[in-house]
C-alpha cells in the first residue's frame, strides 16, 4: 500500500512540475507573440547549414564561411518546415564549426535532430505601438550583455509596456541601447555628445573603472550633454553593483564614493551598491557565480527605475 502511495505521489509531483513549466513557457511565448508580427516576416537572405548541436543558449553549425551578425534575428527551418527564431550575442569559429553563443530562442527551441536546415536572416517586425516614454540607456556590460543583463530592457518593458527604448545598439531581444560590453564612462561620454532626444536617460557605468576622479568628471560631462539635448528629460544614475570578490569590491566602493559626492542638479541616483549590500547573504541572492547579477537583482533594479519615471 505504501509503495502504491509513493508511486502516485511521484506521478502527482511530476505533473505539477510539468504544469508549472508549461505556464512559464506560455508566459514567455505570449510576451513574444504579443510583441512580434509573425505574419509579416521579411526574409533577407538564406543559407543551407548542417546543425551539429544546439542547446537552450548555443547553436553549432558546420558552414564556417557564413558572416552572421550578433544581435540580428535569424530563422532556422528544418525539413518538416518547422521554424525556430533566435538571436545570439557572440560567436567563434573553431575546427570548421561556427559556435553561436549567448543565444536566445524567441518562441520555442528545437526538439530532436535537425541536421540539414535552412538558416535565414530575417527582419521580425513588431506589432505593438511604440510606448510614449522614450528611454535611452547608456550602459556597459551589466546593462546589455552579461547573462540576465541581456534581458534588462525585456524585463522593464514586460513590467511597463509604455517604455520605448532608443539607441545605436541592439540586444538579443531587439531592444535598443547605447554602449556595449566594453563600454566605460569615457566611451559613454562620446555617445552622449550625439545621443538622440529622450524622456528618460539611464546611466549605468563605473564598475570596472580604475580612475574614480575620471569617472566622476565623465559623469558630470555626460549629465551636461544630456541636459543640453533634452533639457526636460529625467536623468537617472545607477551606481555600480558591489562584487563578491573583495579585491574588485574595494575599487568599486571608491567609485561609489565619488559618484555619491557629485552634486548634479536634477539627476536621480539609485544606489544599488548600498542597497544590495544591506541584504543578508547578498552575494548569493544578487549574484549568479561571482561575476554576474542574478535575475532577482535585475527585477529589483527594474522596479527601482520604474518608480522613478
UniProtKB/TrEMBL annotation:
InterPro entries registered for this protein in UniProt: SGNH_hydro_sf (IPR036514)
Top-rank taxon, per record: Bacteria
UniProt cross-references to SUPFAM superfamilies, sorted A to Z: SGNH hydrolase
The protein's name in its UniProt record: SGNH/GDSL hydrolase family protein
TM stretches of this protein: 6-23
Lineage per the UniProt record: Bacteria, Pseudomonadati, Bacteroidota, Flavobacteriia, Flavobacteriales
Keywords: Membrane, Transmembrane, Transmembrane helix
Gene3D superfamilies in UniProt: SGNH hydrolase (3.40.50.1110)
Amino acid at each position: 500500500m505504501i509503495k502504491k502511495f509513493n508511486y502516485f505521489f511521484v506521478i502527482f509531483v511530476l505533473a505539477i512540475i510539468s504544469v508549472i513549466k508549461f505556464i512559464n513557457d506560455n508566459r514567455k511565448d505570449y510576451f513574444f507573440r504579443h510583441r512580434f508580427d509573425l505574419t509579416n516576416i521579411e526574409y533577407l537572405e538564406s543559407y543551407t547549414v548542417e546543425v551539429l548541436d544546439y542547446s537552450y543558449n548555443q547553436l553549432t553549425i558546420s558552414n564556417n564561411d557564413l558572416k552572421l551578425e550578433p544581435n540580428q534575428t535569424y530563422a532556422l527551418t528544418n525539413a518538416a518546415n518547422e521554424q525556430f527564431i533566435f538571436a545570439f550575442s557572440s560567436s567563434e569559429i573553431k575546427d570548421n564549426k561556427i559556435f553561436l553563443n549567448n543565444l536566445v530562442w524567441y518562441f520555442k527551441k528545437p526538439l530532436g535532430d535537425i541536421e540539414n536546415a535552412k538558416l535565414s536572416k530575417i527582419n521580425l517586425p513588431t506589432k505593438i505601438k511604440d510606448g510614449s516614454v522614450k528611454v535611452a540607456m547608456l550602459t556597459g556590460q551589466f546593462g546589455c550583455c552579461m547573462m540576465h543583463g541581456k534581458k534588462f530592457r525585456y524585463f522593464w518593458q514586460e513590467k511597463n509596456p509604455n517604455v520605448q527604448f532608443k539607441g545605436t545598439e541592439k540586444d538579443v531581444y531587439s531592444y535598443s541601447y547605447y554602449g556595449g560590453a566594453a563600454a566605460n564612462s569615457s566611451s559613454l561620454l562620446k555617445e552622449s555628445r550625439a545621443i538622440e532626444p529622450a524622456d528618460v536617460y539611464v546611466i549605468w557605468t563605473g564598475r570596472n573603472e580604475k580612475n574614480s576622479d575620471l569617472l566622476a568628471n565623465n559623469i558630470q560631462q555626460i549629465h551636461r550633454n544630456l541636459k543640453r539635448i533634452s533639457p526636460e528629460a529625467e536623468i537617472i544614475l545607477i551606481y555600480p553593483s558591489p562584487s563578491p570578490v573583495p579585491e574588485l569590491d574595494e575599487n568599486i566602493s571608491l567609485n561609489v564614493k565619488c559618484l555619491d559626492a557629485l552634486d548634479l542638479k536634477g539627476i536621480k541616483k539609485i544606489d544599488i551598491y548600498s542597497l544590495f549590500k544591506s541584504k543578508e547573504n547578498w552575494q548569493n541572492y544578487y549574484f549568479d557565480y561571482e561575476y554576474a547579477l542574478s535575475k532577482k537583482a535585475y527585477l529589483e533594479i527594474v522596479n527601482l527605475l520604474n518608480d522613478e519615471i
